[in-house]
């Protein structure tokens, strides 16, 4: 139960609300309901139970016990209810006053409940272990005895008196104990400090034990006041440091941290049990406020700065059950502690802050009434609220970060610029170096511009050129060669077995072709253009050699001759190809071929003999085509040696 | 407090130790906290790290056979917090009302404070009037005689002080200490019930008188 009540600042607001959904805050001890809903709930439960019992009040008691065991109500609520019950009974049904016996029974029950298995009391004892080890056994025994009588006294009065009377009783008991320490011989050899500590211990021990009875009792209106104060603070959440003339520098991160620490301290007050512990929470909170004011003011802060800051903190913290806590401290804290010392001063300030908040008007914030009303009704939301201040804080952080990035970029840019300059210098140096080097090289090897070696136009140089006809006339030559190769082949193949027409061997071809041509023409002794060509070719070759000697660069001249040769060779080649391709067509129509042949064709010995054709005609047209293929490749020497033999063998192959 | 303030040491050689609560009242910026800092720490504009606040300070002065411990409660001087003052001066045995001699308005406010204290604070409260910033005599707006006359009329202690030069600072506290009743019964009874009344009566702050039982 206690452990559950430990404060956690990270609970969702929705989880704290009453489960009934009435909008107020619920309490775990009240099954997550708010006090009002829980009261109603309890009353309903009670009505149900009492309905089943015959005996009115004793039955009720039994019923209560059943509820306790069955539903597992919190003990605190049980007592609260008993107390409330008793009061109503005393008022309304004085006839049914319980006997003193049952009362004692209840009291001892309560006592056991209060002091059984409460880890906080154990912890308190441990905290004061040092103190008790320094005092005699008799003192310790007497203190514990005093605590017992204290408790009995309070519990006895808890049933009857109002909270103020109870407060009076408690205060008197403090004084009684103090006087006892002064008077009793047991305490005589103790120092004043030890006595004070013992007094504190008694107060803390008793109050921690009785906390559930004394804190915010149902007989008071503390809870309503809590709620109204909480609502009030919520309504005032737009109030910022400027409105209060409060010199909190919210943009400083250390100040912000201290603000949060102070807020946490004052919120933590609700979880402390003993009045003095609550008081020390307030003191911690206020010391943090002074620390943060020191950052803003630049010296020790006076009350002029402190009170507005405290009001600001209370407004921003909106501590739970603030009014109940203040009332509890006022009633049950040792009055001498509250009236003097730092704790007393800060507590007074807290009371002032609460009072200021409760009575806050437009005037007290120095603003026009209309503006104040607008803020209060939520019509207008001030632009400079705490949140926006925090946002500004964030913005500043971001700005600083970006400034740092910019700095970094700037540095890099500078470095880059330096690098660029260095590179530029290097480049200039390099340029100069190269220039020097070039100059040196030039000085070493002076440039002598020699006449450009252009491929000389052989024709233009040759005086006989103009009189010559164009060297190559492919159109005319093609049919001639087309027919000639076969004759050439016959002669040639006998001499060497190389294929006569290939693209790669063109120069050779040219020579090999030209010579037989010339030879054949000379043999025929015909004044045909071919004759001229042959002579030209010869003179050409001679010319080439003569030029070679003139230029004194044999390689170049060869290149030149070759380059000039290419079109001619191409002409030869293309004509040769053409002739080969045309061949089958010629052979398919031998009669046509004969007719279309050039006049020179008649003079030449025709390679196509009727012998062959006569034999072939016995076969299918395919035979001709098959025959043509080996002719073209000219790979097999057998075919090359004799076309007819080849045909024979082919025909024999077909026959077999 | 009853136990502490009037407690006599068992050996009795040191005499009495009296603890008194003293409130500082006055408009803001008249130098209330400077006065206290000068009295308690001997500082003016040369704050040490240890001094985190000037709102609550304690100082002990010795008078013949009695040690007087002052517990000095500073109050917020702004007009808007005026209504909260009774919570501070309730239960106080002494009060210093501070005004600024270079500002006539602050003297007017001081008079209101005095009137309020006489009406609402404990009847035997010792009230001192301090005209601060006496070092700025060339800018004086409140005449010494005027204030002196007012103080005599109302039975107040009066001194012109300067927190800057430390003029009359210790003197005014000593004068208060001398005037305070050393009878522990008086001080003890005066405070016992008041702490508890602090909040209960806050709704009726203007209620005159205190509540000694």
From TrEMBL, chain A:
Pfam families: DUF5601, VPS9, zf-A20. Residues 12-46 form the A20-type domain. Residues 48-68, 451-471, 635-656 are annotated as: Disordered. Transmembrane segments: none annotated. One of its GO terms (cellular component) is endocytic vesicle. Signal peptide: none annotated. It comes from the Eukaryota. Keywords: Metal-binding, Zinc, Zinc-finger. InterPro entries: DUF5601, VPS9, Vps9-like, VPS9_dom_sf, Znf_A20. Residues 223-366 form the VPS9 domain. GO terms for molecular function: DNA binding; guanyl-nucleotide exchange factor activity; small GTPase binding; zinc ion binding. This is Rab5 GDP/GTP exchange factor.
TrEMBL record, chain B:
It catalyses: GTP + H2O = GDP + phosphate + H(+). It comes from the Eukaryota. GO terms for molecular function: G protein activity; GTP binding. Residues 185-213 are annotated as: Disordered. It comes from Cryptotermes secundus. Its main location: other. NCBIfam families: small_GTP. GO terms for biological process: protein transport. PROSITE patterns: RAB, RAS, RHO. Keywords: Endosome, GTP-binding, Hydrolase, Lipoprotein, Nucleotide-binding, Prenylation, Protein transport, Transport. SUPFAM superfamilies: P-loop containing nucleoside triphosphate hydrolases. This is small monomeric GTPase. InterPro entries: P-loop_NTPase, Small_GTP-bd, Small_GTPase. Transmembrane segments: none annotated. GO terms for cellular component: early endosome. The gene is RAB5B_0.
């Amino acid at each position: 139960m206690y452990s559950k009540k430990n404060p956690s600042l990270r609970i969702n607001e929705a989880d704290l609300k009453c489960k009934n959904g009435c909008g107020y805050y619920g309490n775990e001890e009240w099954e997550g309901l708010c006090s009002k809903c829980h009261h109603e709930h309890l009353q309903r439960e009670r009505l149900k139970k009492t309905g089943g019992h015959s005996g009115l009040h004793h039955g009720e008691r039994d019923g209560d016990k059943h509820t306790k065991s069955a539903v597992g109500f919190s003990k605190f609520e049980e007592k609260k209810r008993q107390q409330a019950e008793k009061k109503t009974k005393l008022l309304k049904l004085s006839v049914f006053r319980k006997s003193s016996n049952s009362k004692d029974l209840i009291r001892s029950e309560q006592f056991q409940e209060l002091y059984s298995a409460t880890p906080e009391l154990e912890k308190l004892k441990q905290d004061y272990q040092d103190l008790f080890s320094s005092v005699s056994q008799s003192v310790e025994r007497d203190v514990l005895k005093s605590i017992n009588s204290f408790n009995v006294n309070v519990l006895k009065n808890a049933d009857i008196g109002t909270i103020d009377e109870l407060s009076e009783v408690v205060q008197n008991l403090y004084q009684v104990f103090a006087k006892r320490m002064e008077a009793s011989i047991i305490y005589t050899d103790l120092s004043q400090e030890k006595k004070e500590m013992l007094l504190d211990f008694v107060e803390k021990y008793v109050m921690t034990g009785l906390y559930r009875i004394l804190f915010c009792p149902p007989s008071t209106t503390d809870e309503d006041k809590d709620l109204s104060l909480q609502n009030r603070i919520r309504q005032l959440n737009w109030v910022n440091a400027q409105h209060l003339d409060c010199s909190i520098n919210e943009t400083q991160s250390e100040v912000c941290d201290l603000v949060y620490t102070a807020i946490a301290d004052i919120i933590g007050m609700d979880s402390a049990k003993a009045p003095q512990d609550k008081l020390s929470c307030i003191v911690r909170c206020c010391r943090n406020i002074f620390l943060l004011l020191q950052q803003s003011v630049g010296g020790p802060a006076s009350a002029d700065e402190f009170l507005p800051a405290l009001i600001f903190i209370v407004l921003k913290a909106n501590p739970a059950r603030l009014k109940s806590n203040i009332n509890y401290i006022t009633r049950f804290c040792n009055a001498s502690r509250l009236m003097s010392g730092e704790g007393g001063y800060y507590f007074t300030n807290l009371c002032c802050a609460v009072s200021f908040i409760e009575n806050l008007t437009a005037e007290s914030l120095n603003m026009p009434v209309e503006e104040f009303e607008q803020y209060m009704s939520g019509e207008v939301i001030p632009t400079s609220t705490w949140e926006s201040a925090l946002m500004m804080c964030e913005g500043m952080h971001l700005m600083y970060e970006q400034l740092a990035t910019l700095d970094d970029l700037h540095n890099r840019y500078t470095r880059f610029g330096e690098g660029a300059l260095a590179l530029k210098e290097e480049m200039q140096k390099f340029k100069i170096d190269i220039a020097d080097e070039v100059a040196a090289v030039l000085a070493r090897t002076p440039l002598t511009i020699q006449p450009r070696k252009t491929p000389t136009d052989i024709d233009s140089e040759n005086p006989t050129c103009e009189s010559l006809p164009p060297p190559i006339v492919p159109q005319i030559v093609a049919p001639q060669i087309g027919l000639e190769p076969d004759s050439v082949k016959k002669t040639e193949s006998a001499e060497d077995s190389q294929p006569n027409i290939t693209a790669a061997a063109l120069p050779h071809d040219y020579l090999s072709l030209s010579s037989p041509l010339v030879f054949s023409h000379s043999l025929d002794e015909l004044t045909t253009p071919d004759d001229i060509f042959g002579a030209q070719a010869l003179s050409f070759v001679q010319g080439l050699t003569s030029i070679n000697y003139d230029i004194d660069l044999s390689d170049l001249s060869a290149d030149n001759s070759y380059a000039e040769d290419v079109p001619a060779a191409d002409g030869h080649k293309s004509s040769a190809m053409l002739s080969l391709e045309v061949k089958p067509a010629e052979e398919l129509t031998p009669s046509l071929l004969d007719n279309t042949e050039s006049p020179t064709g008649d003079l030449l010995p025709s390679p196509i003999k009727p012998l062959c054709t006569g034999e072939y005609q016995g076969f299918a047209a395919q035979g001709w085509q098959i025959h043509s293929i080996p002719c073209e490749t000219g790979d097999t020497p057998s075919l090359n040696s004799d076309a007819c033999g080849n045909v024979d063998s082919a025909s024999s192959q077909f026959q077999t | 407090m009853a136990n502490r303030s009037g407690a006599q040491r068992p050996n009795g050689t040191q005499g009495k130790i009296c603890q008194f609560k003293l409130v500082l009242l006055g408009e803001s910026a008249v130098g209330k906290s400077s006065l206290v800092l000068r009295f308690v720490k001997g500082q003016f504009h040369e704050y040490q790290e240890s001094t985190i606040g000037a709102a609550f300070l304690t100082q002990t002065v010795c008078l013949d056979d009695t040690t007087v411990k002052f517990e000095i409660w500073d109050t917020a001087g702004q007009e808007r917090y005026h209504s909260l003052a009774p919570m501070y001066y309730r239960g106080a045995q002494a009060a210093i009302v501070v005004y600024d001699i270079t500002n006539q308005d602050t003297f007017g406010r001081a008079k209101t404070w005095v009137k309020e204290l006489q009406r609402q604070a404990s009847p035997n409260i010792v009230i001192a009037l301090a005209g601060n910033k006496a070092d700025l005599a060339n800018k004086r707006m409140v005449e010494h005689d005027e204030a002196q006359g007012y103080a005599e009329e109302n039975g107040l202690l009066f001194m012109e002080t300067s927190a800057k030069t430390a003029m009359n600072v210790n003197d005014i506290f000593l004068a208060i200490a001398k005037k305070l009743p050393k009878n522990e019964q008086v001080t003890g009874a005066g405070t016992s019930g008041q702490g508890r009344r602090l909040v209960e009566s806050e709704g009726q702050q203007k209620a005159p008188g205190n509540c000694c039982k």
